[in-house]
Amino acid sequence: IEFIEERNGLNIYTFKYLWDDVKRTGVMAQEILKTKYRDAVMQDKNGYYMVDYGMLPYERNWRNRFRNICR
Predict the structure, then answer these.
(1) Which alpha helices (H) appear in the chain, and where do they start and end?
(2) How much is the pTM?
(3) Assign residue 4 a region: left if phi > 0, alpha if psi is -120 to 50, beta otherwise?
């Protein structure tokens, strides 16, 4: 996990899941739970956190901006 920057008061990270080698960009659910966007975090039946990115402040080109970092 690597911190990239803060955007709209949220920390942005790059990370890889244990089961694949794809580098991804996103936020940490545990941090979101401590913000006014806590309703964007859910838990699945196994207790894993999931973030509904549609509920976070979103810049139109956010994913494109970090695409090169993830390669």
Answers:
(1) 29-32, 62-67
(2) 0.76
(3) alpha
**Residue 4, class by beta-carbon neighbours within 10 Å (0-12 exposed, 13-18 middle, 19+ buried)?**
middle
Phi, psi of 62 (to 5 degrees): -55, -55
Q: Side chain identity at 49, as an amino acid letter?
A: Y
pLDDT tens for each residue of 5-48 = 998 899 999 999 898 888 888 899 999 999 999 999 999 999 99
Provide the β-strand partners of residue 44: none
Quick one: pLDDT at residue 60? 59
Query: What is the per-residue pLDDT for 71?
Result: 46
**Cβ contact 42:49 at 8 Å:** yes
Q: Pseudo-torsion of CA 28, 10, 12, 55, nearest 10°?
A: 70
Q: Which residue bears the tokens 């956010």? A: 62
